[in-house]
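Quarterly update, task 2.4: zinc ion-bound model.
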Amino acid sequence: MGKIILFYKYVTIQYPKQIFKWQTKICAELGLTGRIILANEGINGTLGGQDASIERYKKLMLEHSLFGNIDFKQSKGDSSCFPRMQIKIKDEIVKLGIDPKQLSPAQGGKHLSPEKVHELLENKPEDLLIFDARNAWESAIGSFKDAIKPDIQYFRHLPSYIDQHLETFKAKKVLMYCTGGVRCERATAYLNTKGVAKEIYQLEGGIHKYLEQYPDGFFRGKNYVFDARLSMHTNNDVLTTCLLCNNSCDTYDNCANASCNKHFVCCNSCKQKFKNTCGLGCQQLLESEKVAPRPPLRTVKVEQPHGQ
Ligand SMILES: [Zn+2]
Ligand SMILES: [Zn+2]
């Protein structure tokens, strides 16, 4: 049995290199795989491993002076969901492209628990705007009912999307959400600096925590995740279609042509028909051996390496 955990904490880390060494050591000892991003502004991670190893990791983290009361989101899975263990030191724990000194979560929207969000959606005020802070390929397969889903490919494109759509937020109560909450911390802060919204809320713990309590609630479809599982099944709604035949479908795959590796929604019959490629072009290239096949799913590279 195994688990996958998601976690983040905005906390000042004065010496990220020391934390890097410590994390490298404990993750290796416990046989964990996944990704951890460290920055002066905090930590953001997703890890897979055996139950006992994950429990040990959580205990070590909670005992650390910087990471006490860190919130872990858990789901089924294990170390095979990630190709390796990767720990990096960066400027931001999730890239918005704005210096953390200029924009911090302290300026962010009010945190609402899943219960409060559910209650709010049950009695939805007229001036409530539900906003999906994730990328288009994530919101395509699952989202909150009536949410605005920006057509962006990377989180760092969100500020310019907000700048170009200020009218949309004007005099609204904005409820923002993302997968595990980390992206909303500074995205709500960014929106706040614009001074257009009436009130700004963020879903605490993101879609992950909401679905634990309301698997059949206001979030419909699947929750996209950044590991080999690609999505977590929640309810039976299918929100999108196969790129190749347009039939109802919401399972992602990567093109079997290694040099293409396109991440797209594809149904089972199209997978067979086009030999796991994104279409006739790549299928022919692969069959004529002009290109190499991509490695197995275990090493599938998801476009944005890290976002909760
Ligand atoms: Zn199809
Ligand atoms: Zn392709």
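Highlight for this quarter: Residues 255, 257, 260, 262, 277-278, 282 surround zinc ion (ligand 2) (CB under 6 Å).
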